[in-house]
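Ticket #4471: structure export looks truncated?
Reporter: QA, pipeline team
Priority: medium

Steps to reproduce: submit the single chain below to the structure queue and open the exported record.
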Amino acid sequence: MMGRLVSRANGALMHFYLLIALLLLWQFAPALGLVNPMFVPALSTVAREAGAMTPQTVLLHVWISFWRVLRGFSICAALALPLAFLMAGAAPKASGALGMLMSFLSQIPAYILYPIIVLLWGSGDRAILTVICWSGFWPLLFTAIQGIRDVDPKLILCARAMGTNPILLFGKIILPAVFPNIMRGVRIGLTNSFLILIGAETMGGENGIGWMISNAQRMAKIPRIYLGVILAAALGFLLNFIVARVERRVVRWKPVTEDLNI
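Actual output as written to the record:
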């Protein structure tokens, strides 16, 4: 019985062994002279820096970044999904008219647009939300369009032959068939949005994890820079975990791959 419990515990911890080894290396590498402790402080030094900041301050920066990416990506989804159904389903001719333009615009990185957006609207939340939306819009749009095009036309023809009304056809056949692609677009788009969020906060934010890293760099508080990196990684992992769990619950018939990219 005890051996079985130990085996299960080892299996559960297997994914964290490499992380634990990395953290131990981080802790002891400065003391062993493998790295310069001035530029790569020990993990305990970073932990003390976190203790020096009030928990409210740390959590406030994390919450602001989380709320920004949530708002920006929600705007992105509200724009991308209706456009995808319009281009691939309701008005397929629009796809031919807009396809080349969309492909061209999607090649413009958000960080290149950021200085232009700041010139037009100024720095702050509006500029940050715009680049978040831009980064997440394209993968969500293109994956949703591909999912709509992949719907088996025989299913739609059979449903229409049985007199299914358009609302029921959309809710019972088209949307369930497209939803796995939508969730894949959400994961890719959310990854892009989160990455550009941290960069935008370092350039023009007044708070948030990215601003905390940039401010620590200006003040030469190197442990705080590493603290910000850890917080960004933890928040990104949490976002990916939440999306993966939602996908697992909603898309039960499709195996969910545990991505490690956010």
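Status: closed, not a bug. The export was complete when the record was re-opened. Leaving a note from the reviewer for reference: Residues 212 and 218 are 10 Å apart (CA to CA).
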